[in-house]
Amino acid sequence: MARTLAEKVWEQHVVRRADGEPDLLYIDLHLIHEVTSPQAFDGLRLAGRPVRRPELTIATEDHNVPTVLGPISDPVSKTQVETLRKNAAEFGIRLYPMGDAGQGVVHIIGPQFGLTQPGMTIVCGDSHTSTHGAFGGIAFGIGTSEVEHVLATQTLPAYRPKTMAIEVTGELPVGVTAKDLILAIIAKIGTGGGQGYIVEYRGEAIRKLSMEGRMTVCNMSIEAGARAGLIAPDETTFEYLKGRRHAPTGEAWDQAVAYWKSLRTDDDAVFDQVVEIDASTLTPYVTWGTNPGQGLPLNASVPNPEDFADPTARSSAERALEYMGLTAGTPLREIEVDTVFVGSCTNGRIEDLRAAAEILRGRQVTTRTLIVPGSMMVKAQAEQEGLHEVFKAAGAEWREAGCSMCLGMNPDTLQPGERSASTSNRNFEGRQGKGGRTHLVSPQVAAATAVTGHLTAPADLV
Amino acid sequence: MDAFTTHTGTAVPLRRSNVDTDQIIPAVWLKQVSRTGFEKGLFAAWREDPTFVLNDPSYTGASILVSGPDFGTGSSREHAVWALQQYGFRVVIAARFGDIFRNNSTKMGLLPVILPGEKVEALQAAVEAEPGLEVTVDLADRQVRWADEAVGFEIDDYTRWRLMEGLDDIGLTLRHAEDVAAYENGRQPWLPTTV
Ligand code: SF4
After folding, report:
1. What mean pLDDT do residues A174-184 have?
2. How far is the CA of B118 from the centre of ligand 1 (A)?
3. pTM of the full predicted structure?
């Protein structure tokens, strides 16, 4: 029977199937970090259970870590990081601690080491695990009880989600990025549009994206409510993986590639739902509200809540404008920001930093600008290319790797009422610090905004 | 986890949509390494507003939260479930839930109930008219009852059984350890390890 890519990967991982029960799925790779794991390890200890496959598990410190050199000053954050170190040592799990050359945001380090490969099942106690689907596997976020379950059994009971195809036809115009594409998709289908689905991104515009761009798209699948997003592997994928630390080599590489090539949706397979979007019509996108679905082209103005037919959308828009301190009808370009943040697992990879540097080269920022590499390896690469010099010369801050201002958990936060243009993935109330106001943008728009102080596309710069 | 069969209590209406887990429990509260004490962080930012519904004394002691659609979207933090439970909620009713939140809830014995949007609103209105209204959530019969209303809800048999028995998922899976071992023998040889 014809099957979609998601169905093929799922079937390959079913350990046990019984009537009226969820499938028991095998998990190929489990990523853990300091925030969602301590209570899971406690659970194991209480029950006297070991970690079944420590060598399929990897740990990093990312959410709590400061992005300036030096120890963690917040004692509670410090305890959490120390707890992870103790747990990793006790249960034999490889950890990339703060300061290590391999440390970084959990969703950046999996791919950078070649641990994320096509056809795998990957989970992490973090909703943006969907990022790893860019390689053609099933990757999704789980809660702490499930983290404990995977640690103890290397499996998860789960019902197979329905399948959705998002067909992206046409080509992205010059200056329009993967981030703009995914913001446009979420604006179109809504924050609940993907609920209950695994989304496969398909079509010409997707094929032309780099791996970095594909990861940006899959990363934000969860913001459309989808459990996971994936893209069929192709030469771009294989090229990216080849030679990475944990990628197969020699004969194993050939075997793997032969298998990976079979990982595509059959021509006559049927999706439960299909959404189409024409990439060639897109322009840079920004969010104006407090959920990632509240986005518009940068050319537009702040919407009037009264124009929303659906009462729930209307009241949500009203509340969002109040929280964001915005007035309907204001051109989005006129919104002034206090802070620009380039980083996170959405846009903290080398390609993102290159794009920001290209715009900042020879220019000066007029706002506080944080450039935070997603991992220490991204940082090293950027410094090798001299990007850090560009950022520093422009007056931006060049930081150590971590989640940084993506969430209000480490020292990098917005003050109440402060407004940011941010390349991260969530503009929820208070996400970047209590009372902070977030506009989600691409790295290019972030950099251009840093120069002018108000939301700006690179094409607007003279 | 505690078994859940039927629960009768009072309800509090939360007339907001897209109540993401960053609102339910902000990130600064996630630094704890224990599993307790999260009730203080529940809706921390909103609770500073004296007009926020949880600050309304007429709803004190409510154990059923009745929310607008897309409750629990966003971050995977199970702390959101712990915070709701530790505050005293046993049930959350909404028209739609974030997938991960819903999963986390059923692992912990907090019952997420999906009702049609108009029924959620009817219940919210009924509770607003009479804050002490008794509401029963009956998992055995898959029904929510208040005043003279009785509205059915869907939940798959397996999850219902697990909740009603209060069963630990890991224990259940470990019964199938042989299947897991057999599967492991057939895994593709090139798959990576982290060592
Ligand atoms: S960068 Fe942001 S979204 Fe990504 S893992 Fe860190 S906190 Fe989560």
Report:
1. 97
2. 35
3. 0.95
